[in-house]
TrEMBL record:
Heme binds at C168. SUPFAM superfamilies: Cytochrome P450. It holds the Pfam family p450. One of its GO terms (molecular function) is monooxygenase activity. PANTHER family: CYTOCHROME P450, CYTOCHROME P450 82C3-RELATED. This is Uncharacterized protein. It comes from the Eukaryota. Its cofactor is heme.
Amino acid sequence: MPFLPMVRSLICQAPRASCQLRKMIIAGGSDTTPTTLTWAISLLLNNPHVLRRAQDELATKVGRDRHIDESDIHRLVYLQAIVKETLRLYPAAPLIPREFNKDCIIGGYYTLSGTRLMVNLHKIFRDPQIWEDPLEFKPERFLTTHKDVDIKGNHFELIPFGAGRRMCPGASFALKVVHLALASVLHAFELSTPSDAPVDMSERFGLTSMKAEPLEVLIAPTLP
């Protein structure tokens, strides 16, 4: 059964649990989506050449006489590459838990049923055996060497939403929100930092990987 119909049926069957289900669904996206947007803007502020290229793409593909629409996103390939690179460097959920439902052997190690495993996405996404210059912010890698890598669970070198039957059910919606929100900000505003200081990229780890210091950004409208 698809995720949303399943949740709806559970709410109908157990009214007392509906409040908990609503909280679970809302909480799943209330931290991760704004966290990804914050990291993306921080990376762009520290890499002005990438920011300018993204704004040039928006000016060319969308123009300056209207606001951006969701239907524009599929043509903004560089913007999509920026989001992929942001999720690679700063996955909102750096660890993915899994539990074995049967005994098995993985990498030569015998693993008992019930064993819980934490998949370290933060490490995988920065593995130099997979990524060239893994600590560098290079969105263009997703237009060249890794152009066929998606983030929908099909390529295990980049699975910010997980993979398989247990991957994030809100992945498609989250991507639409991040793409549209980031494109809207870059299209309508010029961004800068106070005194043109670089953004502190220190991380504060938890269930979500957030900035240790709040992002301070100055915005100036550019659209009429």
